[in-house]
Amino acid sequence: MKDEDVGEAPVSTETLPDTDQPPGLDDPSLYINRETSWLALNRRILEEADDAAQPLLERVKFLAICGSNLDEFCMVRVSGLERQLDRGALAAPPDRMSPGEQLDAIRVEIRRLLEAYSRCWQDLLPALHHAGIRIHRIADLAASDQEALRAYFRETIAPVLTPLAVDVCHPFPFISNICLNLAVVVRDRAGIHHCARVKLPGAGIHRFVEVPEQKRDLQQIAPQKAIDLVMLEDLVATNLDLLFPGYTVVASYLFRVTRDAEIQIVMDEAPDLLTAVEESVETRRAGSPVILEVDSSMPDSVREMLARQLDLDPHHIYGWDGPLALVDLWQLAGLPRPDLHDRPFLPVIPPSLAEDKDLLASLQHQNVLLYHPYDSFAPVIDLLYQAARSPDVIAIKMTLYRIDQGSPIIDALLEARQNGKQVAVLVELKAKFDEKNNIIWARKLEQEGVHVVYGLVGLKVHAKLCMIVKRERDGIVTYCHLSSGNYNAVTTRIYGDLGYFTCDRVIAADMAALFNALTGYADMDHFQKLLVAPRGLRREILARIERERERHLQHGDGYIAFKLNGLLDEEVVRALYRASQAGVKIDLNVRGLCSLRPGIPGISETIRVTSIISRFLEHARIYYFKNGDNPEVYMGSADMMPRNLNRRVETLFPVEDPEVKRVIVDLILPVHLKDNVKARELQADGRYRRVVPNPGEERIDSQAWLIAHRGCWHHAT
């Protein structure tokens, strides 16, 4: 397959040495910086927003994802580097870039990204207009429309707004994290200028406001009736005179502050982890400012005033022409225009797991693989409801990481408890940005008598596990579900995740031991089949990579294939480099961050790294070791990143069922590795190039193929 450049991408400041001898594996030039890799990921997402072949509102969706990703990056990664710059770096990354060097590189690329976002938005606007989604400037509307909008503002928006003066009697107000604000300049009757701040409303008020309908002939330029919209900041700015009567509004400028969102959990005074997390979350809104985004028209005097009040240096200020808070584009992306979205499809339910079947009986004698969203998540939910109602089910144990609103999983667990089952749930309160939601669910479960564990101090529990204990005629049977994805009925429709049902007695015993360690007092060192972090998982993965290296030296048939979200761990990367130096062929499908440089002579010549950015978020993890005639496949929740291997409870589980293993090795892994439509290939210099088919070669869009052939893996087994 050929490849082609896909635009600018950041590269590490380290360059590969110009020498005939390969560098040592501790050479920093062999590793791509984490933050650089993240920014390259957002570039790949932006390519989808720029792709005119995409349905229009899917392009808008990808631009919204760019915005939300950049917000989180600044709140978490940039803020962390700023703290290291102030207090001293923790441990140097494998590429050895200092916090200051990383921040300098980040600022350059963020400015490039914002310019690219603005260009993309300007390209989308006429396409939206042509499709009947018309976003206007209020000044360009007819007088009758302006009057209708002014009436709407007076009745609906103005009562929510609180203009705050900024002067010697009115201190500069607190600026909330990632909220939109207007810096307003007004002039009094004496000709003196004053500054004020108006915070735009958030919850309950849309960013895109529909123009109230007038009696006019709307041109039908789309299959549906055209919709006319204005942006909230334009509506507020146009009617500021109603907020400052007796003053002349001279100008207004949109701005937005992003703050440090990391929370410090302090257990000294809190009676339990739930209270400690709850108290810590409240500090997020007051985190230190990290960046200031402003409309490019804002004059230097206003920028300097804001920077001074927020204690930010000029390099923390980003002026750009696009719509600040791109995350609000989700409103547009959600418009009910089927003609502008991806074509919907019905996920498959394996016949043996149909709703009218006894799922526990079906699963007792077979292992079942589900690949969401191509397979429905309904069997997981139905299984829990059937377990809740079965008189022979004794107990249910689960881990919950990110829980959806109105969760059917929670409802099933509550019903199980009401029916007298023993129900134990570990709710990870420290799941970033889901803390408040998880606290609410933890309390609800606890109030109903469920045994709730809040997580572990110092570790996040990221493993995705469920076990159902049932009394059968032949004794106690434990039904296990293990997954790469959360027990979340919403995300299973948009994340590509693998789930696995099994009654394997050894896996069940391992899961029981792990739950005992999570809910009581037990170590996590002794498991027969599960690979569990933070203790043995790293050791076992490294051992298998080394085994493949030794196998290749003896027999020449070594092969490794990983599909995962992130590859940053230095030990794992070094092990893969050593395997490649021995000649082992290695295919890595890494959706997100990757510090390994493929294709370096003498180091990684046999390694290929691809990334797929497409309709669904690639979230599955598969670890395949050919191991001669005895291949091993592991799946689960863990990426090869320091946080997963060192600071989380993670699990990888073996797939030993020969038919399920064959489906993964011969179907699921290959279709992703052969993608030449949505895949990008990582180059040794840290850049990604889009993979394109050679002349006459079949085009393979892995996700489109899986949609078209969904369910075929059930027939194969």
Number of domains: 3
Major sheet size, sense and barrel closure: 11 strands, mixed
The name of the CATH architecture of the largest domain is 2-Layer Sandwich
Helix content: 25-40%
CATH class group of the largest domain: Alpha Beta
- CATH topology assignment of the largest domain: polyphosphate kinase like
- State which percent range the strand residues make up: 15-25%
Radius of gyration (CA) equals 27 Å
Low-confidence stretches: 3-9, 215-222
What's the β-strand tally? 28
Mean pLDDT across the residues is 91
Report the CATH superfamily of the largest domain: Polyphosphate kinase middle domain
**Secondary-structure-derived class:** alpha/beta
- Large-scale geometry: globular
Distance between the termini: 31 Å
The helix tally amounts to: 19
